[in-house]
Amino acid sequence: MADGLVQARGLRKRFGEFEAVRGIDVDVARGEVFGFLGPNGAGKSSTMRMIACVSPRTDGSLQVLGMDPGTDGPRIRARIGVVPQLDNLDQELTVRQNLEVYGRYFGLSKAHVRAKTTELLEFAQLSERADAEVEPLSGGMKRRLTIARALVNEPELLLLDEPTTGLDPQARHLLWERLYRLKREGVTQIITTHYMDEAEQLCDRLVVMDRGVIVAEGSPAELIERYATREVLELRFAPEAAPAPGEPAAFVERLAFVERVEELPDRLLLYTSDGEQAQAEVALAGYKPLSALVRRSSLEDVFLRLTGRTLVD
Fold first, then answer.
1. What is the pTM (predicted TM-score) of this model?
2. Residue 198 and residue 191: Cα distance in Å, rounded?
3. In CATH, what is the architecture of 4-218?
4. In angstroms, rounded to a whole number, what is the distance separating the alpha carbons of residues 94 and 100?
5. Per-residue pLDDT reduced to its tens digit, 164-210
6. CATH architecture entry for 229-296
7. Domain ranges in the chain?
8. Which member of 35, 152, 189, 295 lies 3.0 to 4.6 Å from 206 by CB, making a disulfide possible if both were Cys?
9. CA distance linking residue 215 with residue 43, whole number of Å
10. In which band, very low, low, confident or very high, does the pLDDT at 266 lie, cut at 50, 70 and 90?
């Protein structure tokens, strides 16, 4: 990629005998939001730490901003912003001081840092809490402050590791709006997440990781079109009314509108182009579920198709 900010080929990371990242290829273009989607332990955070120049690669090649993290780590770190999985704010400083002190680490002038701090407090919707202590802030406020701090040096590349883990829905959506605003301003972002709705909302392009390897790559819409159907019919049965073991597989043969079936411990997923027609066929076939839900296919279904597991496994 001529305008690639990150390029990896055969990238590997081992911890003793355990190989967390097993030879992946990644290209991130300038201005895009790129995602690593997968369950805990998939290798997402290990990959991010190599890109952030805080963990050396074991093997393969890696270029960040046209430089090698192995030899140009300090130069790269000066031009990127990092939002770690866990907030590491200074609890003894105020909200404003967390930004001002961090800005001084980059050698920026006091006047520049003060002006940038005022701008970032407004961006993070924390202007009214500027002189408050950090500890009493809500989880969403702390997360927004961590993101604001990562922007003090006006980075070319922003790395966000599980940015909304532990936040309530309202805080998550506010954070998404802030990240989308950064995208409109041209800030390249790399995000790791195990929330499929987050990946669909934020990412232009993503890779799905499992057990250290990439199992699929594309835009959210491309992946859903490639590996899932337009809709999914979710059925839950009472124990006495549930289909016998192996019987759900016959749905594909018996029901014209069902293309594929997945059996999960608590429900059946029927993949179909028309959920309402499939639901009608299920009723005509004599099955009586406790509940039936028609929804559109998601990246969760893509992951289930590729790995046989759900993202939360």
1. 0.90
2. 10
3. 3-Layer(aba) Sandwich (3.40)
4. 10
5. 988 889 989 999 999 999 999 999 999 999 888 899 999 999 999 99
6. 2-Layer Sandwich (3.30)
7. 4-218, 229-296
8. 35
9. 12
10. confident
